[in-house]
Amino acid sequence: MKIIAFLIQAGVIIAALACFPNTVEAHPHIIDAKDKIEIPVDILLEELESVQVIFFGEFHDHVGHHQAQLSLIDAIKKGERPLAVGLEMFRRDSQIDLDVWTSNKMPLLDFLKIYEDNWSMWPKYSEIFLYARDESLKMVGLNISREITRKVASTGFKSLSIKERELLGNVQCEVDPSYEQFIKRAMGGYGGHGDQFLFFCEAQLLWDTAMARNIIEFLEHNPDYRMVVLAGSGHAWKFGIPRQLLDQSDISFKVILPEMPGRADRNNVTEDITDYLWLDEGDDGWSF
What we know:
The structure is a single chain. This protein is about 50% helix and about 15% strand. By secondary structure, it is an alpha/beta fold. The protein has a single domain (about 25-95, about 135-280), classed as 3-Layer(aba) Sandwich (Rossmann fold), CATH 3.40.50. Strands 2-1-8-7-3-6-4-5 form an 8-stranded mixed β-sheet, sandwiched between helices. A hairpin with a 4-residue loop joins strand 1 (about 30) and strand 2 (about 35-40). Helix 1 packs across helix 6, helix 7 (about 145-155) runs antiparallel to helix 10 and helix 10 (about 195-220) crosses helix 12. The chain is globular, with a radius of gyration of 19 Å. Residues about 1-25 have low confidence and may be disordered.
């Protein structure tokens, strides 16, 4: 209870800050992966206007990444089309609770219990969730049961029962060599070997496929909406959720990734990884 009380107190303070997402003064440095040049923010926003889904990758424990995400959400929300925020951080089975939260009908203490059942690091994510509540901004849970992904990572996709596969929509999970290479690159060259590596790839692929399906389902029911998807950089890479979105639909998208030295940085970024690379120049975050 002491931890929750502390988080509530921190949340109240952050709530005030969240009302002013543009107070962060850091300047964003965005590289266009196609032309390898830095582009101004107004050009970035103009290009993002042409797509329905924007993936913004993150390091989960990096406060600056979440400040940047919030700033982008705030900027895009000012457009003509309604906006939703897709979350790796919440399971699909918690959607009802998310809807109650963003309708401002749930006390913070109650929501924190649900949040902690889904994710962690509330102080790092609180500004985004408080902003969504205060602005009545739709949030969409994209994730699947941790028990499922852990089971696949441990004993492989074939170990899932018929019932478990049916709950996933009878999704297929066939890892090809290009996906294995993507996983190794996403992990900085460390991927293991043998069945354990295959099982890990299957778990990641299953995860990406399910999240893509949940994005598609939401947009099928809400075709006027655009969506900003917040996910770990390994999921937001074009070989992650975006590839599954492309395989299953014709929904347009763009990808923004933070710089990841040795994996996706200003020296080796390519268009097959991301559309834009956010350069971390030591700033806590950025705003428009």
